Amino acid sequence: MTIPVEHVDVVIVGARCAGTAAAVPLARAGHRVVVLDKATFPSDTMSTHVLVPNGVQELQLMGALPGILALGPTKVRHLTLHDEDGLEIKERFKPFSGIDYGLCIPRDQQDAVLVEAARAAGAEVREKVTVQEVVWRDGRAVGVRCKSGGKVYEIQAELVIGADGRRSKVAAEVGAWEPYRASKNGRGFAFRYLDDPQGEDAPKAFQIFRKHGNQVLVLPSCPAGRTLVVNMTDAADIPKYHEDPEGEWKALVAGDPALEERIGGATNASDLRVTDHLSAYYRRSTGPGWALAGDAGHFKDPVTGNGMRDALKFGRRLGEEVAVTLHDPAELDAALTRWEKERDADTISTYHWGNRESRPGPTSPLVREVLRTFAGQDAPNLSDTFNRARPIEAIITPARMVKGLVAALRAPGADRLGILKEVWGELPAEIGARRHRLLDGFRSSRPAGTERPGWDLGPTPKAPSLRPATEVVPEQPVDSIQSPREKVSA
Ligand SMILES: Cc1cc2nc3c(=O)[nH]c(=O)nc-3n(C[C@H](O)[C@H](O)[C@H](O)COP(=O)(O)OP(=O)(O)OC[C@H]3O[C@@H](n4cnc5c(N)ncnc54)[C@H](O)[C@@H]3O)c2cc1C
User: Could you give the CA distance from residue 383 to residue 410 in angstroms, rounded to a whole number?
Assistant: First the structure.
């Protein structure tokens, strides 16, 4: 049977954050870009979807911001933190590109706008198309085979971009499914929409309530008056949410007077959604004629609120980087490697921070005193961790940690031995994260102290097609192709 073949410049699998963001600069540069997605938009996906100003500017850059603002979302200008011992922090976000607010748009609405932005830039977005295979010629990815409405066809292109999420078929097809760096996540997520009891007068702040080891986020959403509430809890508690979702939720709200005061009595607008499948990782993300953008190549704990920002930013940067080299394979592959290096350098601090933040447990006296060093200033500081204004190590500095340590040790009735043991336990993570950012090489799989063994990405979508491994595995530094199970241990 002959399969119909069409030729384009770039084929992108996945039409959400990374796929549409990559499509825009390529289409604007005049290339023929086809974006395929098995979903039909509007379509929801598992996400709590916070964007702080650094991420919102990406919506502006791709031309999606007017469509997003037309949805009538709350513009959120502050971050607040309420810890159980009465510690309160309130900061105004640092602006980026003149944007001084964050957004929290339900994914079905947000992603439909992204698709329209990609179309407006000139890309062709095809819905209800499932990619089944990557097509190869002489060891180079040259297209995809896909299925739509019972018809199978092939799209050939200079570049295949897998923007198809954590369970990336493209990653499996190019032999990059196994991460070279990964970490088990100790937190689970339980979240739902509420009609905010304070209506449109609700605080225009992303609020964090920390109590009993829970971190509850209250996030004004879209339209104004609708609020997303997320409990980032111990992953071990997630089975309880499966057994008795409403009972767990009631106990959560009743267990924290500050949270009860904020959202008690709210009408529940949606069912609870729950997940504890959140392992963080880096996959080898480029090779001859292919790239993995967004979650397909790299995922970090959602506690960082940065997954969409990175998918949008490095989708865009991928499109920009390859737009001028598309028709020269050697130049193209060099551009792909440059892009992957740039992504890794930009994301690594936040990856390690996410791994540390995803450890469950109540706030320790040491962490509380370090947090207290942020209190009393309206200027952006702690919020820069989410906003990516500086690397995490430049925000939670050694000086700040020493100040917190001294305060914790001096507090009346302090368990000094316990505090010093915690410091000792934290050192490998502190040193490892800094060493990794400053010294370790590209695609290094040297473990850092933040990483925990036991990560799990589920089964490979489908074994790679029957072709010799040498055809799809480009030359790598030796450490990047060893088994991640051997290399990544805390
Ligand atoms: C519980 C949770 C909470 C989160 N909270 C936040 C948050 O608050 N803020 C934040 O910034 N990030 C958050 N994230 C992360 C964020 O959701 C992701 O980083 C982001 O969605 C990545 O976008 P993407 O475009 O790479 O992939 P995805 O959004 O996963 O999109 C992939 C697309 O590829 C399509 N696809 C897959 N396979 C195929 C195929 N074979 N053929 C055709 N199409 C295919 C899918 O249909 C899908 O539309 C959260 C994630 C989780 C799990």
Answer: 27
Query: How far lies 452's CA from each of 277, 351, 393, 483, in Å?
Result: 14, 13, 20, 15
The model's confidence at residue 393, banded by pLDDT at 50, 70 and 90, is: confident
**pLDDT tens sequence across 295-328:** 999 999 898 889 999 999 999 999 999 999 999 9
> Is 187-275 a CATH 3.30.9.40 domain?
yes
Fold designation for 5-49+107-183+283-357+452-487: FAD/NAD(P)-binding domain (3.50.50)
User: Cβ(49) to ligand 1 under 6 A?
Assistant: yes
Q: Is the CB of 226 under 6 A from ligand 1?
A: no
Which mutation among 37, 114, 115 tests ligand 1's pocket best, with the greatest number of atoms within 8 A of CB? 37
Q: Which atom of ligand 1 is nearest to the CA of 191?
A: 1
Task: Indicate which atom in ligand 1 lies nearest the CA of residue 17.
Answer: 25
Residues listed for the chain:
490
Report which protein residue has its CA nearest ligand 1's atom 19.
307
What is the distance between the alpha carbons of residues 49 and 7, in angstroms, rounded to a whole number? 35
What order do you get walking across the sheet with 33-36 strand by strand? 124-126, 33-36, 10-13, 159-162, 290-292, 286-287
> With a 6 A CB cut-off, is 133 part of the ligand 1 pocket?
no
| Residue owning tokens 């607010």 | 101
- 294 CB near ligand 1 (under 6 Å): yes
Tell me, using a 6 A CB cutoff, whether residue 307 lines ligand 1.
Answer: yes
- Answer yes or no: pTM beyond 0.85: yes
Q: Where are the domains of the chain?
A: 5-49+107-183+283-357+452-487, 187-275, 365-438
